[in-house]
Every structure is written in C-alpha cells, then in structure tokens.
C-alpha cells in the first residue's frame, strides 16, 4: 500500500494537528504533517499528496496562501487538492482558486465533518470510486520539521504523554523543537 498518497496537514497549532490527525486516520487515510508553509511548499513539490489540509494563518513565516500558489505551479495531474482552514479572515480568501482549494472550513472545526470533507476531497483528487480510497492498514504518521523540512519522529496520535515529550524533542538536523518553532501553539 506504499503507493497510497497521504494527506498533508499544515498547521502550527500542535494540539489541533493531533486532533486532525486522529480524525483523518479514523476515516482510513495516511497522514503526514508539518508546521510551516515553507516546509509544506518543499513537500508538495517533491512528494505526492492526495489532499493538503492547510491553515490559512500560520504564526511564523509565510501564510497558507503561498502554499496555494505553489500548488498552482504543479502539473494538474500531480497537484494536490486543498482543504483550507481559517479562524476568520474569510475576506482574504476572496478570489481564491477553487480548482485547487476545494473546501474552506471555519474554526472551530466539527472534526467528524472535517474528516468527511477530507475523505471526499481525497477521493475526488485521486479519482477513486466512493467504495475505494480508504486503506485497510493505515501507515505510521510522518512528520517534517517546520524550520528545516527534515523528517523527524512523529508522536503517536492520541497518546498525550508521548506528545508532551515529542514537542520538546529537537530536530536532528537543525536542533529546533516543535514547541520552539510554533509560538502560536496552545499546548
Ligand atoms: Zn529541523
């Protein structure tokens, strides 16, 4: 099942990342995540994703709109569909490219509804029949450093004490911790 492209979550609020990961895994899709637009842009250009779940406003660095722009430059058959999340500022999304951004969800999210949106978007992006798409055995969550993009160990979704250790574990490449690069995080 290694040819099943994952869903990429781009969100700087790590407690929300955890909730979103669990919700998406529940509908049977593999998940990867990162905390910055910069890392997300590198990832979507080099790896294949069925769907990108994107926070519009990220605490540091580029906004989610730059990820949309980067997706636009990818060939249509390789381009991931985007589900955008925002806590407001819907005005910023006026004129957004609806060929790429398939859904705009307002925070706080209804996680069950969120997962269904992601599943539908994922299946449409990969042109899967409604009965297909969900994998029987979900691969491990993969995580990428928001500062340098290096792959780093991920926490096991839903296990709070491991998550608490994980956010203070430095990246082996640049030494930054998930907590350190996500000042907007509420954890
Ligand atoms: Zn790093």
What is the percent of helical residues?
A: 25-40%
Mean pLDDT: 83
From the spread of the alpha carbons, the general shape counts as globular
Helix and strand succession? EHEHEHEEHEEH
Q: Briefly note the structural class of the backbone.
A: alpha/beta
In which order are the strands of the major sheet placed? 5-4-3-1-2-6-7
CATH topology call:
Rossmann fold
Give a summary of the structure in a few sentences.
The chain is an alpha/beta fold. It has helices at residues 14-26, 37-46, 64-72, 111-125, 160-166; strands at residues 7-10, 31-34, 51-55, 81-86, 101-106, 142-144, 151-152.
What is the topological layout?
Layout: E1 7-10, H1 14-26, E2 31-34, H2 37-46, E3 51-55, H3 64-72, E4 81-86, E5 101-106, H4 111-125, E6 142-144, E7 151-152, H5 160-166
Parallel strand pairs: 1-2, 1-3, 2-6, 3-4, 4-5
Antiparallel strand pairs: 6-7
Bound molecules: zinc ion.
Describe the structure.
The chain is an alpha/beta fold and 187 residues long. It has one domain: Rossmann fold. 29% of the residues lie in helices and 16% in strands. It is built from five helices and seven strands; from the N terminus they run βαβαβαββαββα. The chain has a seven-stranded mixed beta sheet with strand order 5-4-3-1-2-6-7, with helices on both faces. α1 links the parallel β1 (7-10) and β2 (31-34). The radius of gyration is 15 Å and the shape is globular. Bound molecules: zinc ion. Residues 145, 147-148, 150, 171, 173-174, 176 line the site of zinc ion.
């Amino acid at each position: 099942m290694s040819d099943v492209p994952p869903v990429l979550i781009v969100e700087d609020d790590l407690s929300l990342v955890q909730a979103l990961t669990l919700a998406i895994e529940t509908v049977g899709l593999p998940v990867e995540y990162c905390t910055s637009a910069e890392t997300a842009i590198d990832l979507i250009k080099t790896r294949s994703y069925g769907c990108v779940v994107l926070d519009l406003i990220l605490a540091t660095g580029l906004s989610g709109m730059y990820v949309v722009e980067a997706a636009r430059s990818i060939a249509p058959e390789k381009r991931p569909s985007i589900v955008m999340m925002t806590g407001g500022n819907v005005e910023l999304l006026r004129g957004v490219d609806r060929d790429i951004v398939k859904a705009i969800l307002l925070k706080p999210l209804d996680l069950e509804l969120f997962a269904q949106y992601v599943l539908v978007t994922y299946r449409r992006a990969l042109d899967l029949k409604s009965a297909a798409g969900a994998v029987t055995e979900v691969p491990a969550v993969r995580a990428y450093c928001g500062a340098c993009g290096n792959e780093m160990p991920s926490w096991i979704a839903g296990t709070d004490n491991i998550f608490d250790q994980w956010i203070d574990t430095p990246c082996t490449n640049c030494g930054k911790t998930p907590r350190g690069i996500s000042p907007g995080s509420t954890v």
